[in-house]
């Protein structure tokens, strides 16, 4: 995986710059119609107290992110809160961070038609925890026409 400071940044429009939007390459290795095995490692992270606090804030405030693949938008949540049946008190819930991203990509001929993201492997956010971030990609042929 490419270190974050070395990732490619891109601004398409002045409005994106003024709004603070920054398109950054994910650095994930991906090639058309070539699957990436399940749980391919992206990077590791040892959570210190500051990082755990920031990530917990993101999960508790329902932060989400947006990716693009071939100009198709993909949205995902940073994490989730644990809950028990009938428990509506989010303050008592534990914040969990998703550490695995699975992309399912449908194609027709040379065109990508659809992309689905499934986030999984939720991990508790605790200082001192070692996190392993992984991803996988599966390509599927479809008869759906490109529009």
UniProtKB/TrEMBL annotation:
GO terms for cellular component: membrane. It is a multi-pass membrane protein. It comes from the Eukaryota. Signal peptide: none annotated. GO terms for biological process: protein localization to membrane. Coiled coil: none annotated. InterPro entries: EMP70 (IPR004240). Keywords: Membrane, Signal, Transmembrane, Transmembrane helix. Belongs to the nonaspanin (TM9SF) (TC 9.A.2) family. This is Transmembrane 9 superfamily member. It comes from Strombidinopsis acuminata.
